Amino acid sequence: MDVTENINTCWGWIGIEAVEVVEENDFGNLLIRDSSSRFWRLCPEELECELVAADQQQLNKLLNDEEFLIDWYMSALVEVAKKTLGSLSEGRKYCLAIPGRLGGEYDISNIKTIALNELISFSGNLARQIKDLPPGAKVKLNVAK
């Protein structure tokens, strides 16, 4: 499945209609242009997909913001992941095994690799399932092989 099609299938419930992925990082964060030429950030480790720029001008400003860039590149975490897990092969990303929103730590013991489309599917489907839970609610994950 095409990445934008997968975004629309798994994250469309938030109102995004993805047309193009314009940037991606090693943790599968995506900057996505939608059908209205707005820009969204998909942040799978936090189970979030949020509008970050209303147009190209706002996106350009964001991409020059030092605080955003530090958060975007996640350089220290990527360096630790590369040393421990090795370089990423084509189509794979690092990820938090337990998402941060569910209490997962930003620590090498919680970092794995995954195919980008699997990460998009997992994060979008899980985010949809827990979207109405109050902060601090307990979540039990059942993993089937």
UniProtKB/TrEMBL annotation:
InterPro entries reported in the protein's UniProt record: T6SS_Tdi1_C
Residues of the T6SS immunity protein Tdi1 C-terminal domain: 57-126
Top-rank taxon: Bacteria
Protein name: T6SS immunity protein Tdi1 C-terminal domain-containing protein
Provenance organism: Grimontia marina
